[in-house]
Amino acid sequence: MVLSLKTKFLTIVGLLFFVLLLVDCSNDKQAADQAKNDSTASCKKPMNPNGDSELALLMRDMMHSSENMKAMIREGKLPDTFPEAFMKIHTAKPTDSDTKKASFDAFADNYLNNLHALYNSPKDKHELTQNYNAVVNACVSCHTEHCPGPLKAINKLRITE
Ligand code: HEC
Prior knowledge:
The protein is mainly alpha-helical. The chain has one domain (31-155). 65% of the residues lie in helices and 0% in strands. The longest helix has 41 residues, at 2-42. It is extended and about 70 Å long.
């Protein structure tokens, strides 16, 4: 009897979990669809007469900085100062003003948190590499939904140990 109660309880917990999972997935899907609409818009080549957007220029800096960092981390080193300029990711104007709807800010925070973790990481080559790759993954997460164009180049930033 005790056993069957326990079994019932576990079944109910299992079912609840399953339902939660379903709800969660459908939310994700909506967000992904929304972001997909955003992404095709945000990744168009700049059409504004003023040239590249503030965000595109910032991203180019982030790309170069990551390339330099990759070389340093392979030698177990890290740049001395945190790149404060990258905090502007939240406010920098994108090519298309629709870009920053949906999940943009959450992805941006995820990126900045991982970057902070890297700068606070123990200066050990293995730890640095792990934390650096986590930053690259944060670039990839945002780009998968918001701007798939540069993904190939971003994936090359990863260090394989
Ligand atoms: C929060 C989302 C987000 C994160 C995180 C992010 N990007 Fe971007 N990235 C974008 C968006 C959106 C654009 C398109 C900008 C525009 O067109 O105005 C872009 C554009 C770019 C471009 C193209 C710039 C150009 O010349 O037009 C490169 C390269 C790039 N990102 C690299 C990176 C790298 C490397 C990282 C991580 C270090 C990163 N991105 C992190 C959203 C993100």
